[in-house]
Each structure stands twice: as structure tokens, then as C-alpha cells.
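Title: Request for sanity check on Redox protein prediction

Description:
We are preparing a figure and want to confirm that the structure record we downloaded matches what your pipeline produces today. Could someone re-run it with the sequence below and paste the raw C-alpha cells into this thread? We only need the C-alpha cell string, no images.
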Amino acid sequence: MNHQIDCQWMENMAFDVTIDGHHMTIDANPELGGENRGPRPKPLLLASLAGCTGIDVVSILNKMRVPLEGFRITVSGSQTEEHPKIYDKIKVVYYFKGNNLPMDKLEKAVHLSEEKYCGVSAMLKKAGLIEYEIIIE
């Protein structure tokens, strides 16, 4: 399967992006001529990683019959100083909420996502280190 997005310049540094019929505005910081009308492109990579692995983990845990009361993910990226500035280190933290959650199943779901299913993770690993942490709240 191939994916294609449409990215249309609006004005200044703002672009309207269409992904599968959904619109989003991407913009630059005001210091760079933007108007802060939408997220920056690089942090969207981190959001894509969170969404990709999150979908995997929820799907896997559903198949394992692990009921969740809550689930969230934070992703932070450390950029290099030189251009092109890339994320050379990314940390993904999974926060699970529920009663008597089995850590072994949580770890297995996260591991399967990071090593087998999440294509965003596989791509970003080629650029730098990705660390994972699991926290039960």
C-alpha cells in the first residue's frame, strides 16, 4: 500500500495538509516567520510514533484480554545541534491504568509493537536510539 498526502502552501510559513481526507495546518514558530497556526513538522513525527505504537498496544492487549481503564503515551525527542537537526534520541513512556494489570503482558505488547508491528518506530530507529518505559498508574 502506498500513502500520499497533499500539502498546499497557504501563506507565510503555513501549509494545509490533507491526509486521508483529514485537514491539518502545519506552521513554523513566529521567530521563523510563522504564526503558530498549527504544529511543527518534526513534533508530528513524535505524534505519529505515539499513535502507531498506541494502536498496536491497545490491539494486542485486547487480544490478550487485558482490560484497561486508561492508557496514555508521552514521547520526547532530543535533537542534534547541527543541521539537519534530527531526533537522535527518543523516549516513549507508556502509562497504563487498571486493576491488577499483568506487567508481563504489558511488556509483551510494548515489545511486539516496538520490534514487529510499528513501522514508524522501525523508521525512526534508523536515525537514533528509542528508549521505552512502562508505568502503571
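Thanks, this matches our download. Residues 2 and 36 are 31 Å apart (CA to CA).
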